[in-house]
Amino acid sequence: MTTGTILLVEDEDKLRHLLKRIISLEGFQIHECANIKTAMRILETTPVDVVLSDIMLPDGNGIDLVSSIRQMQLPTEIVLLTAYGNIPDSVRAIKNGAFDYITKGNDNAKIIPSLYRALEKVQLQKRIEHLETRIGNQYATFDHLLGNSTGINEAKELARKAAPSKAAVLLLGETGSGKEIFAQAIHSASERAGKDFVAINCSALGKDILESEIFGYKAGAFTGAIKNKKGLIEEANQGTLFLDEIGEMPVDLQAKLLRVLETSEFIKVGDTKVTKVDIRIIAATNRDLTREIEQGRFREDLYYRLNVFTIQLPSLRERKEDIPLFAQHFLDVFAAKSNRQITGMSREFTEHLKLHEWRGNIRELKNVIERAVIVSNQSILSLESLPFEMKLQKAGSRQKNGTFDLAGIEKMHIQWVIAYTNNNKSKAARLLNIGLSTLYRKMEEYSMKL
Ligand SMILES: Nc1ncnc2c1ncn2[C@@H]1O[C@H](COP(=O)(O)OP(=O)(O)OP(=O)(O)O)[C@@H](O)[C@H]1O
Question: Which ipTM was obtained for this model?
Answer without folding.
Answer: 0.98
